[in-house]
Design a protein that fits this description.
The chain has 209 residues and is mostly helical. The protein is 79% helix and 0% strand. It starts with a helix and ends in a 6-residue tail after the last helix.
C-alpha cells in the first residue's frame, strides 16, 4: 500500500469515525451511568468497532462476490454515501448516525457500547464502505495487514476518547465539537469525490478519455 493511499485511508477513517465529534454523543448516552459503567461502555464500543471493521476488511471480497457487486460499483456507491455523510457533518447534522428511537432506548440498554455507539454511530455504513473499498483496492496480505493496524489503532483511540468523554465534552463545549465535526465533514466530502470519480471511471470507461 503506497504512502499516499495509506494516509488517505487514515484521514478518511479518522474523519468518518470522528472520535472528537462523537465524544458529546457518548457523554449524552452515558450521562446516567456510573464512572465504571461508562468506561465499560467505551471499551465495549472500541472492541465492537474493531471486530466489525476487521470482518468487513477480511471477509469483504466474499461478501461482494456473494451479492454480485464489483469494486467499481462499491467505489461509486461508497463515494455517494461518504459524500452524504460529509455534507451532513458540514451542517453538524447527526441524523446519518442514529435515529431518535435508538438514542432514546440506548440508556436503558446494557449493550449501549455495541448499539448504537459502535453500530451505527462509529462503525456505520460509511465507515464500513470506506474499509471495504480500501480492502478491495489493496487486496494483498501486507496492505490488508496495514489497514488492520490502522483499524485497531483508531478503535483504541475511540476507546480512549470515550473514556474521558465527560471531561473532553466540557472542555471543548458544543461549539468546539461542532467545529471539529465540520472540519471532518469537509475532509470526507473531498475524499468522497475521489471515490465517486474512480468508481464512475471504472463503470463508464468513456469518462476517462
Amino acid at each position: 500500500m503506497s504512502e499516499a493511499a495509506l494516509l488517505s485511508f487514515i484521514a478518511a477513517l479518522f474523519s468518518i469515525m470522528n472520535p472528537l465529534g462523537n465524544v458529546g454523543i457518548f457523554a449524552g448516552l452515558t450521562e446516567n451511568f456510573k464512572p465504571e459503567e461508562s468506561r465499560v461502555a467505551a471499551i465495549v464500543c472500541a472492541v465492537s468497532t474493531a471486530i466489525t471493521l476487521l470482518l468487513m476488511l477480511w471477509l469483504g471480497k466474499s461478501f461482494l462476490d456473494f451479492i454480485g457487486l464489483t469494486v467499481d460499483t462499491l467505489r461509486a456507491a461508497g463515494g455517494i454515501i461518504v459524500l452524504l455523510i460529509g455534507l451532513n457533518m458540514l451542517s453538524n447534522n447527526n441524523s446519518h448516525r442514529h435515529t431518535p428511537s435508538e438514542t432514546e432506548e440506548a440508556p436503558q440498554s446494557t449493550t449501549v457500547g455495541i448499539i448504537p455507539l459502535a453500530i451505527p454511530i462509529v462503525a456505520g455504513p460509511g465507515t464500513m464502505v470506506t474499509v471495504l473499498v480500501a480492502g478491495q483496492q489493496n487486496p494483498n496480505l501486507l496492505s490488508k495487514t496495514e489497514i488492520s493496524v490502522v483499524i485497531v489503532f483508531m478503535s483504541l483511540l475511540i476507546g480512549v476518547f470515550f473514556s474521558f468523554a465527560t471531561r473532553l465534552s466540557k472542555f471543548m463545549g458544543k461549539t468546539g465539537m461542532g467545529v471539529v465535526t465540520r472540519v471532518m465533514g469537509m475532509i470526507l466530502t473531498a475524499i468522497s469525490m475521489g471515490l465517486l470519480a474512480d468508481g464512475l471511471k471504472g463503470l463508464l470507461p468513456g469518462l476517462a478519455t
